[in-house]
Amino acid sequence: MVWCLRIHLARAPLLALVALIVLGTLAASFPGFPEATAAASSHETPEPWQAVLQSLETEARILDPTWAKPVSAQPGGSIEVELSVYVEVTAAYAVNVETGARIELTVESLEKVSDSIAIQDGAVVGPALAKLSIPQDAVPGLYNLFIVLATGDLVWMPRSLIIYDAPPDELVILHLTDTQLGAIDKGILNDLKLARYVALVNTLKYEIDLDLVVVTGDISDIGINVSSYRNWAFAMNQLLVPTMTAPGNHDWAQVPSLESFLLDFYGKYNVPARYWAAKWGNFLFIGLDSQSEGYVEPEGLDFLENVLSQHSGEDVVAMIMFHHPIFSNPGRYKGDPESFRGALYGSWESKFELVERFFDIINRYSIVKVVFAGHVHRDADAIYFRQDNTPVYFITTTTAMHGHPQGYFWGAKVVRVTVDGQVEVISLDREYRLEKGSIDTTGFKVYASYGTEGKSYSWTYDIEEFGVKLERLTLVYPLSKAVPAEVYTTNLIADGLSPVDVKIVDQGLYYLGIATFNIESPKGKTIMYAEPDETPPQIEVQSVVPSKPFRGSIVTIQVKVSDIGWGIEKVQAEVLGLGEEVPVFSGLDPSIYIIRTQAVPGMEGIKVIAVDLAGNASEVVIELEVPAPQTTTTTPPAETTTGTTEETETTETTTTTTTSETAETLTTKEETGETTTAGEAAGKETATTPVSPGETAGGGLDSSLIILGAAVAAAIIIVAAALYRSRAG
Asked: Which portions of the sequence form the region Disordered (predicted)?
């Protein structure tokens, strides 16, 4: 959706508090509500996801640069690094993301700025500022940054340093927006769709020389969903190109204060500043926050003007990023904003004085060439011609993975910007139009699976309906260093793919396998692993609602599927007695699956089948017999009539679990990427669990309690929305 309910605690404290309590209580009780991942480990060999989260969540950490706003420098140059604590720095180094090459950085100085972290002008300011110099022989590339403290702690920030030799003549940029993680669209949890963009970006890096990803907000559907930001940070730090982000209104949703926005939620996992600027050669990027109300506030425009004035005498190309687009309609515009006021997006138009100031700024500073935005979940590019007839390209891109208007799609947009200010949208799967220029990624069905203890990483893909003709895929595999690197290169499965180049790159705290494949089939999978997976998945029935179905009722079944090994490849369901397949949807947690079907006569139950990436399978049978209606004929004494009444019978629900354990030997042929499988099913294990009346399997809530809680929460949300809209005009 292109709007969100914004409950500001300062405006409606009691209403917001009650809503959060009711929603929190319901969600915490209902199976499948997302829980925060376990705290990052501090042992010597962290798993890859732990290592990434350590960089963001420890008390001692790097505040600037971040993976979402990297710093750039040339060999022999220097950078400034802002730290969250003032502790002596004993050493610093950087590791090349693509090659693993390590360079030593010289600590030139360490300045104490303050006694503790502070927030100034919408940004987090750390108490320490270190100045580091880059060696003259540093090889250009994207680097992970590491700092060793006198306490013995190692703090780091992945993908936060760009070293370039000559300033780039052009940048090929992928614009990504409105991921809204934590929400579900088309039956799939949005978090699971991140993998397609990791695969797409890394593939396009080598296919079209993609240089950078810019993100314009609504990263999380709800701004206080830490789990979503964790998933986001881990996925984005698998990219082989730099990333820059700005927040959206959903990133502010339910966030109680600026402090928590910057220190606990969006800022902690992205950029701890509402407004920022970063240079890469002669390209200047400026990130702004259009916040919940949908426009950049005066202090944001002050920041913009100040940055542009500092660089106005330089030969630079400036690109601005914020969430809410100024233009609602695609088109070409010129002159005073009053002449195209009807084409403005509503939130901006309501603050027309800010629109006038924005266009005054970009008319005075001709270095501005591009404005990136999102929010409307559709393409709506516009070109504005200044008074001197030079263009500014307003690039507004469709949602990456959430709801969109009819006729649009999930997607991302590729834009080439040259150092002399030329701008071109590269539409890979269609003829470019202002209203449709993004790559349609709906058919790029790529999913990833993180294996147990980080000792395997898997990809499945189905690109048969993808509109871009690809000959190769480049995929990455974050892997634990607890296993020697050569083990992973030996154990590579490639089904439907032919390896062209495979390498294991030491990232400092974990490995990153990087593999480029020729595509032999539009569907397939690849797994890089340390150990074979011989354990079948586990299926836990968490709820069946209603627990005593009747004819015509909608039965909702929630199951949790887990796998000790490589991960789950697919979950299927079928109606026993009728032989029909039932769609399986994502839950709010990646391990949760939802099955919905109508109870009809002849139904004997639902069978849920889970298959892992090694081919091991398990199944659960949930008995749900729905008897046919019985016909009773009655003959009253005074009349000869026949009346028919329906009697509905119910039965208790029973679940039966069957696990098929397969003892398999997996042999990878390195020359061809083929996998041979030997072994037969070794046995079956059965368990039966009766469900008592008024309960759900797995101890979940009964449907009446869920409906009651949902009704209360819905009522509160409706009232809150009405209050918000009345205040918003």
From this structure: 625-696
Q: Average the pLDDT over 548-570 and give the result.
A: 92
Domain boundary, last residue among 409, 440, 471? 440
Q: Are residues 345 and 431 located together in one domain of the fold?
A: yes
Q: Is 348 exposed, middle or buried (0-12, 13-18, 19+ CB in 10 A)?
A: buried
Q: Dihedral of the CA atoms 260, 264, 267, 272 (nearest 10)?
A: 80
CA-nearest of 222, 27, 32, 33 to 706 is 27
Q: What contacts 24+ positions apart, CB below 8 Å, involve 120-125? A: 121/275, 121/299, 121/303, 122/258, 122/262, 122/273, 122/274, 122/275, 122/289, 122/299, 123/262, 123/272, 123/273, 123/274, 123/275, 123/276, 124/63, 124/262, 124/263, 124/267, 124/272, 124/273, 125/82
Q: What is the pLDDT of residue 11?
A: 35
Q: How far is CA 202 from CA 66, 497, 651, in A?
A: 20, 16, 53
- CB neighbours of 92 closer than 8 A, spacing ≥ 6? 81, 104, 105, 106, 107, 130, 132, 145, 146, 147, 148
Is 589 among the domain residues?
yes
Half-sphere exposure of 327 (CA within 13 A, CB side): 26
Together in a domain, 478 and 524: yes
Which pLDDT does position 549 carry in this prediction? 85
Q: Tokens for 51?
A: 């290592």
pTM above 0.90, yes or no: no
Tell whether 114 and 260 lie within a shared domain. no
pLDDT digits (tens, 9 = 90+) for 308-353: 999 998 999 999 999 999 999 999 999 999 999 999 999 999 999 9
3-state class (DSSP) for residue 216: strand
| Residue 13 DSSP SS3 | helix
- Asked whether residue 507 falls in the same domain as residue 562, the answer is no
| pLDDT of res. 313 | 86
Q: What is the amino acid identity at position 661?
A: E
Does 378 map to a domain?
Answer: yes
CA 624 to chain centre: 37
What does DSSP say about strands 184-185 and 89-96: parallel, antiparallel, or unpaired?
unpaired
Q: Which DSSP string do the residues of 559-601 spell out, in sequence order?
A: EEEE-SSS-EEEEEEEEETTTEEE-EEE-SSTTEEEEEEE--T
Q: Is residue 45 part of a domain?
A: no
- Token pair of 20 as six digits: 């959060």
Integer Rg of the chain from CA: 28
Q: Where are the alpha helices (DSSP H) in 467-565?
A: 485-490
8 A C-beta contact, residue 243 and residue 400: no
Measure the CA–CA gap between 485 and 487, rounded to whole angstroms. Answer: 5
pLDDT recorded at residue 334: 97
Supply the mean pLDDT for the chain. 85
Q: Are residues 107 and 194 in the same domain?
A: no
Range(s) of the domain holding residue 85: 61-162
Of the candidates 83, 201, 229, the residue with the CA atom closest to the CA atom of residue 142: 201
The number of folded domains in the chain is 5
Determine the Cα–Cα distance for residues 502 and 492; give it in Å rounded to an integer: 9
The angle subtended at Cα 711 by Cα 706 and Cα 715, nearest 5°, is 150
